[in-house]
From TrEMBL:
SUPFAM superfamilies noted in UniProt: Thioredoxin-like (SSF52833)
Upper classification of the organism: Bacteria, Pseudomonadati, Bacteroidota, Flavobacteriia, Flavobacteriales
UniProt-recorded name of the protein: Thiol-disulfide isomerase/thioredoxin
Entry annotated with the keyword Transport: no
Chief location: other
Organism: Chryseobacterium camelliae
The entry's keywords: Cytochrome c-type biogenesis, Disulfide bond, Isomerase, Redox-active center, Signal
Length: 171
């Protein structure tokens, strides 16, 4: 009986942290998702639309991460390498820290202060993250020059489709 209960508990908790690719790979954002508010390092409110507008005409990699996320921290050196190898691409870091204090500490601790950083003050569950089927971090998306989604789902900066998408868009 104990084994059955343990298996059942593992199954229930396993459902909450699935890293399965979504069935539908979206190519654009909903109006509601674009209106999602984040905070910048100074605590000023900014929408996803405003962030994308700042990078219009450029290829953008969205990097969802958090300092408490072991997988994110293991991926950080490869993410930095991807950024270094693509100097004409804008990298935007979307933090899922649990507090503004945690956000600030992570930016300092992981030398992220000189990057485009934003924090989901509303938490993990919000219009944007729900729309993009955010079910795991780290997560990477490639956005094209017109703010369309070119690569919807990657959970590693080493995913070869990230680089091939960047290469295709940069031609």
């Amino acid at each position: 009986m104990k084994k059955l209960l343990l298996l059942l508990m593992m199954g229930i908790f396993g459902l909450g942290c699935s890293q399965q690719a979504p069935k539908v790979l979206k190519t654009g954002f909903s109006k509601e998702a674009l209106q999602q508010k984040l905070e910048d390092e100074e605590g000023k409110s900014i929408t996803i639309q405003q962030i994308l507008d700042q990078h219009k005409g450029k290829v953008v990699v969205l990097d969802f991460w958090a300092g408490w996320c072991r997988d994110c921290l293991k991926a950080l050196p490869k993410a930095e390498e991807l950024e270094k190898n693509n100097p004409n691409v804008d990298f935007v870091f979307l933090s899922l820290e649990r507090s503004k204090e945690g956000f600030d500490k992570s930016l300092e601790r992981f030398n992220m202060k000189d990057k485009a950083n934003y924090w989901f003050a509303s938490g993990w569950k919000n219009e944007f993250n729900n729309y993009v089927d955010l079910n795991w971090i780290p997560r990477y998306m490639v956005i094209d020059q017109k703010s369309g989604i070119a690569k919807y789902y990657a959970i590693s900066p080493e995913d070869p489709e990230i680089q091939s998408t960047i290469d295709r868009l940069s031609k």
